[in-house]
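Re-run with default settings, no changes from the original entry. Doing this only to confirm the output is reproducible before filing.
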Amino acid sequence: MTFGLISWLKQKHPDLTYEVPVWYPATGAVDNREWLVVNGLGGYSSSTISGANRRRYHGLLVSALNPPRDRHVILSKLDEVVTVDGQEFELTTNEWASGVVSPSGYKLVESFTTLPTPTWVYSIGNHYVVKQLTLKWGTNELYASYYFVPGHPSDHPKVQIKIRVLAAFRSFHSQVHGSSEFHYPQFVSPKGSVVRINEADRRLCLSWTHGDYEPQRQWWWDFVWHEETARGEKDSEDLLLVGTLKAELSADKPLMMAASLDRPAEIGDINEPAAVNLKRQRGLLDRSALPKNVQNSLLSVACDQFIVKDKAEDKLTVMAGYPWFADFGRWTLISLPGLTLSTHRYDEAKKILLNQPARMKDGLLPLRYLESSGEPEYSAVDVTLWWAWALHHYVTASKDREILKSQLPLLEEAANHFIRGTNDGIRVDPKDGLLLCHRRDQALTWMDSKVADFPITERAGKPVEIQALWLNFLSVCVNFAQQEGMTSPLMTQMERLRDQAHKSMQRFWNPDAAYLYDVIDGRGKGDKNNDDTLRPNQLFAVAMPFRALEKEQERSILTAIDAFLLTPTGVRTLAQADESYQGRYGCGLAHADQYHRDLSYYQGTAWPYLLGFYLEAYVNVYGNTMATLAKVDSLLQPLFQNLENEGALGSVSEIIDGDKPHTPRGCFAFSASVAELMRWQKWKVRQSG
């Protein structure tokens, strides 16, 4: 008998008016598909359907101590045992370094959903237990709710539940190993407990509706993280059992337990935390104006997961990817149209844009902010250029021209630094008006993996996408300035540079291959100064709002991309015929360490976000026709498959293997992948009328 999870959810939440997914694990199989919910502060809750933590990044309460960064696993997991008329059912699943899987609660999972909050249905004999985990938006509060549903209304068995609280208290990049030197003093009251985390002024606070709590301090040894094993990282840790809650459970008496950071959570209506998140999700879906179906429900919520508050600077920012990335300037700007403009969140888009130049240094915007300190790191040429691209999209969508009064002078300032020359050898070449990035020891483009401080993908010289972005940057600035009647000697110089760069883009044309060089005036191959490696970077020369190539050249580029780089779920970073091609992320190793992962990152691995720019280029070349609409739809469907069944359920992965079966890799939820899927889903809906 199937439980009917959606009916149960609508009974508890009558205002659940949008479509939600339900996943049914295979009987007897460990379902290690991952799930993710976030709190809008950089923190999150994430694990697997089975309940086994398989990454160091998994945890039920992962909090940003300095939002949105410095994330720590506070509460790792809850181990639950339900007793029905004396018969025990263990709901959890643990995997141990010995290879043993025990207990095996995954066998009891009947169904699961992530919306409006992660919800499990466990089949226990003739009855059911429903568990909900709710990470309340804008807080570091996790609520675990347990409902007993008898197999028949006339059934009234004696039911008890025992919940063991397992904590980690560590950076999410590390692991903890048990020691008697760790002291966690605990202060218990009738319906709450406060655990002091070492000598730090941080606390794990526990609250519950009813039951008896027994404080403990017992290490559980040798949990194993199989995903870390595959990544060649340290793959085991110990967890501290801080206490056990025992309570009665019945159809009329559900149980709620809350875990929070520093301040005890207030427990009122047991359905309230999930209702708060449901209301937010419903608002997101309404604003997105997409047809109501499961795919669009998941996509709308996924877009919201990356937009977070930066409390240190009282601003909004974008997390590049879960579980391990913080905010990166490049991915913030690339993601902005899909995450905010396609979802009609113009106010948030404006806040994000206005804050980008706040930390500008010598014309460069920060590439990223460090996880531990929050300090900016400047090591990229393109972030400043993406700023103009995102601003163009924002003004076009929102019609807000007021923003140009503050942004145009700052864009001029950045251009002046580029013209005069700025850090890391970045400067305009007066001979052709293009941007020169000549230092071979620097990785200044998006292909920035390094080994022993040397770029794996050396692109010193004039990389093709940088010139496409530079031309677009100049064009955006000049066009906006002309429209606003803003003139200056520097803007006149930028106009001349625009015209010069426009002509110079023809220098990238490779007549022998009928596509663009990846880099010119660089080291090239052999004695040549130009690199004829076929990479996807030339897509940007066809996908920008302002471009320089002839239509036949653009069509020829797409032909080459189609033939050698396009996959169902992304665009390869290198053609398969190239001697440096790596079709499996991690160079095909079963336990690929950081070195081998970096070695393959841009050497054949496919990136889903590039599909968005491929489609932009396709529309630019072939126009808004029915054939184009069919092309867009055919490329979106595999990404929706990733959204619904791979990576983190309800999100899209960072990267995909270049070779079949195109296994998802990297971050299980990546901002630019999700943003481009939303951007083109909205385009498809508009074109379909």
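The chain has 16 helices and 37 strands. The two ends are 41 Å apart (CA to CA).
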